[in-house]
Amino acid sequence: MDMRDRRVRRTQHSLAKALIALTLEKGYDAVTIREITERADIGYATFFRHYRDKDGLLKDVLDVVLTEFIDLLRNPDATTTGPLLFRYVEQNHEVVRVLLNSNHLRQQLISTATQSTIQEYNKYPQSKIPVEIAAHHVVAASISLIDWWLEHQMPYPAEQMGIIYEELIVNATNGIMFQQPE
Questions:
Q1: How far is CA 39 from CA 20, 30, 119, in A?
Q2: Helix extents (H) in 44-102
Q3: Are residues 45 and 68 in the same domain?
Q4: Which of 9-13, 20-24, 48-52, 167-171 has the highest mean pLDDT?
Q5: Percentage of the chain surpassing pLDDT 90?
Q6: CB 83 within 8 A of CB 159
Q7: Is the CB of residue 146 less than 8 Å from the CB of residue 100?
Q8: Beta strand 122-123 with 178-179: parallel, antiparallel or unpaired?
Q9: Is 29 exposed, middle or buried (0-12, 13-18, 19+ CB in 10 A)?
Q10: C-alpha–C-alpha distance, residues 22 and 58, integer Å
Q11: Which CATH number goes with the domain that contains 69?
């Protein structure tokens, strides 16, 4: 059973890598299942044992990335969030580029992370800013900074970007808007 699980994970990982590489080369809509299986060196029929279509494969890949991304954004320790977030982006830049280059997926990320932020943090009672606006701002600004870093071929190290993220986004907003979770 364990050997079969490893084979399944290896096959799914190969298909995911192939999809990401092809999407970066030619755009998601232009990629075919045949190309994915050829790039992954997996049989065409094998693809359909794991996924119904390429959207199912993409959803699988992005579900993992979205969950990891949101978990990093929700990290209550502001001193480690930035460096962890940017190291993650650096290590997974191909998938993050695919995620951010799709308007639909970007909006899904913003919506999910905003809702998570609203649920996770308490608003300062004296704040004049509605919590949903502040949460959206933090998430959208974070994504925008990541997007800038990737678009400019990561000119600064992840550690430095983490500090920039903390100063520009986390400290500025938390200081006037959010209390740390209890």
A1: 11, 14, 41
A2: 44-50, 54-73, 78-91, 93-101
A3: no
A4: 48-52
A5: 32
A6: yes
A7: yes
A8: antiparallel
A9: exposed
A10: 12
A11: 1.10.357
Count the Cβ atoms, other than its own, within 10 Å of residue 51: 19
Token pair of 87 as six digits: 């190291």
Dihedral angle of Cα 65, 141, 55, 74, to the nearest 10 degrees: 30
140 and 63 part of one domain = yes
Name the band, by pLDDT with cuts 50, 70 and 90, for residue 161: very high
Can you read off the two tokens belonging to residue 151?
Answer: 């678009």
Contact present, 145 and 116 (Cβ < 8 Å): no
Asked if 37 and 69 sit in the same domain, the reply is: no
**In a shared domain, residues 146 and 83:** yes
CB distance 73 to 139 below 8 Å:
yes
Angle between helix 93-101 and 2-26 (nearest 10): 60
Sequence-distant (6+) residues with CB within 8 A of 110 are: 136, 139, 140, 143
Residues 66 and 36 in one domain: no
